[in-house]
Amino acid sequence: MSMADNKRIVQAFYDAANRGDTEGFLGQLADDVRWTNIGSTKYSGTCVGKSDLTARLLGPLFGQLKAGIAATVHNMIAEADYVAVQLSGQSETKDGRPYNNTYCHVFRIRDGKISEVTEYLDTELVTAVFGA
Predict the structure, then answer these.
(1) What is the spatial distance between Cα 57 and Cα 43, in angstroms, rounded to a whole number?
(2) Residue 95 maps to which CATH number?
(3) How far apart are the C-alpha atoms of 118 and 96, rounded to whole Å?
(4) For residue 49, which phi and psi values (nearest 5 degrees)?
(5) Which residues span the domain enclosing 44?
C-alpha cells in the first residue's frame, strides 16, 4: 500500500471514532493489533488483539466519559508502513470533569489494517483525571 493509502486508513479510524462508530474504528484495526500506551498509568501497557484492547483500555476508559473523545488531527506524517499523528482530544467525564489531552499516535499498517499503535500522551493528566 502507498503512504497515501496508509494515511487514509488512519484518517478513517479517527473519522469513525469521532462519529461514535465503534464498529467502524475497530474495523480499521487488524484482529491481532498491538496497542501500547506509554507510561505508568492504570491504562499503560500493551493490549494484544481487539478483545484485549476493548476489555483493558477502551471499555474502562470510555465507560468514564460522557461521549468518547473528540479527536482533532493537527499533523499526519507517513513513511513506509508507518503513520505518525499529532492530535488533541476533548472530552468530559461522567461527573463533569474535563479530559482534554494531547497525543502522538504512531501507527503501523499491514495488509490494509492498523496492526500496531503506540500512544504517547500526558500521563500526568490521565492520573489526575482517572486516578492511579
Answers:
(1) 6
(2) 3.10.450.50
(3) 28
(4) 95, 155
(5) 3-129
Instruction: State pLDDT tens for residues 14-68.
Output: 999 999 999 999 999 999 999 999 999 999 999 999 999 999 999 999 999 999 9
Domain count, the chain: 1
Q: Which residues contact 10 (CB under 8 A, 6 or more apart)?
A: 28, 76, 83, 85, 107, 109, 114
Question: Scanning the structure block, which residue is given the C-alpha cell 499503535?
Answer: 117
Note the pLDDT tens digit of each residue in 70-94: 999 999 999 999 999 999 999 999 9
Residue 74 neighbours by CB under 8 Å, 6+ apart = 86, 87, 88
Take residue 55 and report the three cell numbers written for it: 476489555
DSSP state, 56? Answer: I
pTM above 0.70, yes or no: yes
C-alpha 52/C-alpha 22 separation (Å) is 15
